Amino acid sequence: MRRSMLFLPGNSPNILLNADFLGSDAIILDLEDAVAPTEKDSARILVRNAITSLGYTREVIVRINPVESPYWQKDLQQIIKVKPDMIMPTKVSCAQDVKIVSDYIGQMEEEYGIPAGTVKMIPLIETALGVENAYEIASADPRVTAIFLGGEDFTADLRCKRTKGGNEIFYARSRMVVAARAAGVDVYDTPWTDVEDYEGLVEDAKFAKSLGFTGKSSISPRHIPFINEVFSPTEEEIQYAKDVFECIEKAKAEGKGVVSLRGKMIDAPIVARARQVLEAAEAIKGGR
Amino acid sequence: MSKLVSNIKEAIKLTGLKDGMTISFHHHLRNGDMVAVMVLDAICELGIKDLNVNISSVFDTHAPFIEYIRDGVVTGIETDYMGGVVGRAVSEGIMNKPVTFRTHGGRPSDIIRGASPIDVAFIAAPTSDCMGNCTGKTGKSACGSLGYAFADAMYASKTVVITDNLVEYPLVDYSIAENYVDYVVAVEKIGEPSGIVSGTTKITKDPVGLVIADYAARAIDASGLLVDGFSFQTGAGGASLAAAKYLKDIMLKKNVKGSYGLGGITSYMVDMLQCGCFKALYDVQCFDLGAVESIRTNPYHMEVTAAHYASPTAKSSAVDSLDVVILGATEIDTDFNVNVHTDSNGYIMGGSGGHSDTAAGAKMSMIVAPLSRARLPIVVDKVLCKSTPGNTVDVLVTQRGLAVNPLRNDLKDRFKDAGLPVYDIHELKEMAEKLNGVPHKPQLGDKVVANVLYRDGSLLDQIRAVK
């Protein structure tokens, strides 16, 4: 269950120390934008040691530098050996970008005796070309289990203003969702950047959910409870899902082939959706 | 009859103050207080020495005390709290006689029962009339409640009111009445407003503090105490305020109508009053301008004396009816004893204030603290100073989870049922030590620099000089 992902700077020991307790389902330890060029090497070592020694229970994603930078291979050299759950390559614009990183991860896995394909990928798509190529990126490599929209860089590339209303990223969001679902992977929404505007955050997250996003990322720990709530199934949804399965059981017992609930036929997509809701509800039981 | 005296020096002469006597001050003007130093300056000019100063709290603005200690003007200090500047000097052994630390409830208790007599009380009053009816609610130096000053005014042999807002007789809505006041002095300025109260107190933005606050609020929700009639006290620290904010949300969602909020009052508690979370606020001290405004204008926001707040020898005090208190700690040991007097190097930088009073009175006392501070684990084998005994502390809340005093297994079960992460306190200590290592204990000397009295007047611990 991955509703929320929290970006955390990879060069801040105190943040890394507490990363596991901030409530997000996944933590993104950042070696890219949050880290100045002069601190890239120390951040890599810090993140590597944090993953080794802190015993994170959340899913660990490491955001590495783009393939056109001189840093990404060094990032992977330090990070792959401590087996993060996922690598987030940045400025991914085509399938080739994914393959380059995936191949290098493969080399590192071999070098450190890690079974091939252990480390997954969640490409960060943040260019116009990347959005246009979203499907080929999402289906480029078996390591890719999700794709991620970076709204800030994307709008810069579009040469338009990033607004709270988000009309400028509407197409990109929809295209990303369709591409991800077509490729059979998850899809994550860009962070809400106004740290103090919780109402705006909730509206934005609800909208992303309505489009089909699996979850949303955040740059502020204070946003996490709101994101988790939006992307958690509601009591009503959970009850409906339970009713669906109860209804199916009942129909089976009665030997009925066609099942309907509240006047609506229960077909395969409804069952699949109900299963997802119940699995999600189980995964977050009692948690933050 | 006139009680008005032209200046402080004249007032001191009229009180008959002599070498070896005890004078007292309150700390409602906090770090903006100018009165204590003003009075000591006058005393020094009069050549009076060897005084015992009983002041409800010592702040850094009282740094000139250090010179008066060196000069022999001040030879004894009794207080409930001591900030880092004077605290450092005391810890380095500047005084021959140990400082006496009391609690906010123990101080009025000892004054009232005669265990801690005061010869002359100097009451800084933001507004007074010429006969000494005075209040903290109005005036340019308004500080709100004068709760800690009542016992001083009522039980000192002589009481001098010092004000920078002399108003026409009679002052309406006074706090301390004229029948306790011997002399009144008007001065230009009793305090620096910026140090008296902060403009606003703010909840923490620190994500770790917010996690702790969230757990604290959820623990209160799970405790079984959060029902109609609920009473609550919290500190003014960022995480404590955040916990109050989260608690407010829960109370509003569950439509819980509390009875009273207690203690040092902040705008957040005022907000809870206004939202209907409490019927009333009992205010011994205002922490910010929002609280000052509220106590001045809202009759359900009431001033209480320190004795009413927390005296263990009163017929009853408000802490006795308290359901939940949220408190801080510099250290807590595996027996749940809490240190709020010294830092990890053994230097005095605080004091009990109402810590042990509320811990003793409340049905559930909670300590909120990060698992480690500046790479020092918060949980230790033995605290450097026992400020509050462990048998009155019920829960420790950290960002990793909660530890419950084994005396309160009832709470432990409730927290677990609510899905809160509950650990043994030794486990929390190990988690912190795994990350930080085990720090060396500071080397302390033999000289006792302070005696820490429990609220009943018994000796709880002694603080030794640093080497």
Can you describe what's shown?
The complex is a heterodimer of chains A (288) and B (467). With 288 residues, chain A is α/β, with parallel strands linked by helices. In chain A, 47% of the residues lie in helices and 14% in strands. In chain A, strands 5-4-3-2-1-9-8-7-6 form a nine-stranded parallel β-sheet. Chain B has 467 residues and is α/β, with parallel strands linked by helices. Chain B has 15 helices and 27 strands. In chain B, helix 8 packs across helix 9. The radius of gyration of chain B is 22 Å and the shape is globular. Chain B starts with a strand and ends with a strand. The model of chain B has no long low-confidence stretch (mean pLDDT 96). Chains A and B meet through helix 1 of A and helix 8 of B.
Distance between the termini of chain A: 13 Å
Mean pLDDT of chain B: 96
Spatial order of strands in the largest sheet of chain A: 5-4-3-2-1-9-8-7-6
Radius of gyration of chain B: 22 Å
Shape of chain B: globular
Number of strands of chain B: 27
Percent range for helical residues of chain A?
Answer: 40-55%
How many domain modules of chain B? 2
| CATH fold category name of the largest domain in chain B | Glutaconate Coenzyme A-transferase
Based on helices, strands and strand pairing, what is the structural class of chain A? Answer: alpha/beta
CATH superfamily annotation of the largest domain in chain B: Glutaconate Coenzyme A-transferase
Largest sheet of chain A: 9 strands, parallel
The total of helices of chain A stands at: 12
